[in-house]
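Hi support team,

I've been running sequence recovery on a batch of backbones for a student project. Most finish fine, but this one hangs at about 90% for roughly twenty minutes before it completes. I'm not sure whether the input is malformed or the queue is just slow. I've pasted the structure tokens below so you can try to reproduce it. Let me know if you need the job ID as well.

Thanks,
M.K.
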């Protein structure tokens, strides 16, 4: 990690801030929350903004970034902006047009990172989730290696500085890494990762190939009934996490985020509350890995949480 600016070097030579601001929100509030909370996040110090075509708020994110550049808060080079290639655009000929559409919405000449959102293709078209008459998703047959080649061309064209993937397991990553004629390795793999889902094996694999693991849902899975059993424990209410936070006068969220960074993971913190956003940016303070606080809580989490952790996506 670059200690002066809290960045991690990617395998293509570029740097990514260790803490990012996540902009996903339910569709009914995505645009409003983007306009309300993203400018505040930039004002308090966030410089890594994570967005995606499927979030349906890139126009608003772009509006915010341009306004913060215009009022002198930041320069373009200060902002690390990530966007994602959606599943309906995995065919090689659709990759560049999809990126160009995101750039137009974001009002940017380039993004800092463009990643394949999932290793799964859906039928091309305007519908984000195309379904048949029985309500089942309509899949498309696409070789992700061909998609990756199209991403490499986007990098060469200067439309994105770096390229990566999201929600890939190690076998899917190996498929790209072992592809004949590979020009650029994925710089990152963005996956759900938190103390209840620590992704330890996938993290080790990524590190062995100089791929940065980026954690979304770092403060626990979205409490959406389709995703998580409402009877499952809530991460930020965990007694171990709460005890560590209380002892060191930190929030449970800061402990969970710091846990990731000390593992070498880049972490995304979504915020729809200004108090939480302001608290989370405190993670940048005193990031030295040699302190009693750091050593204690990383030891406790790594040694106690696995008793009720589960590891997926490997």
């Amino acid at each position: 990690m670059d200690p002066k600016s809290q960045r991690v070097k990617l395998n293509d030579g570029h740097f990514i801030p260790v803490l990012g601001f996540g902009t996903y929100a339910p569709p009914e509030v995505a645009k409003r929350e983007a306009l309300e909370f993203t400018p505040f996040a930039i004002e308090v110090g966030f410089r890594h903004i994570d967005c995606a075509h499927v979030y349906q708020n890139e126009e608003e994110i772009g509006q915010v970034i341009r306004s913060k550049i215009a009022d002198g808060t930041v320069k373009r080079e200060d902002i690390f902006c990530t966007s994602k290639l959606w599943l309906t655009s995995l065919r090689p000929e659709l990759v560049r047009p999809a990126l160009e559409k995101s750039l137009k919405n974001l009002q940017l000449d380039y993004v800092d990172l463009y990643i394949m959102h999932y290793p799964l293709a859906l039928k091309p078209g305007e519908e984000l989730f195309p379904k048949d008459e029985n309500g089942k998703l309509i899949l498309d047959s696409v070789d992700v290696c061909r998609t990756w080649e199209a991403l490499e061309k986007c990098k060469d064209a200067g439309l994105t500085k770096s390229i990566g993937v999201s929600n890939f397991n190690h076998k899917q990553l190996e498929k790209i890494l072992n592809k004949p004629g590979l020009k650029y390795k994925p710089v990152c793999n963005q996956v759900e990762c938190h103390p209840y889902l620590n992704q330890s094996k996938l993290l080790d694999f990524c590190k062995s190939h100089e791929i940065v693991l980026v954690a979304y849902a770092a403060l626990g899975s979205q409490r959406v009934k389709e995703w998580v059993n409402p009877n499952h424990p809530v991460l930020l209410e965990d007694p171990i996490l709460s005890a560590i936070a209380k002892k060191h006068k930190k929030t449970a969220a800061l402990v969970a985020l710091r846990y990731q960074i000390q593992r070498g993971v880049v972490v995304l913190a979504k915020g729809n509350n200004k108090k939480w956003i302001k608290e989370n940016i405190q993670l940048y303070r005193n990031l030295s890995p040699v302190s009693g606080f750091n050593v204690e809580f990383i030891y406790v989490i790594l040694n106690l949480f696995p008793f009720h952790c589960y590891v997926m996506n490997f």
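--
Follow-up from support: It reproduced on our side and the slowdown came from queue contention, not your input. Residues 287-314 have pLDDT under 50 and may be disordered. No action needed from you.
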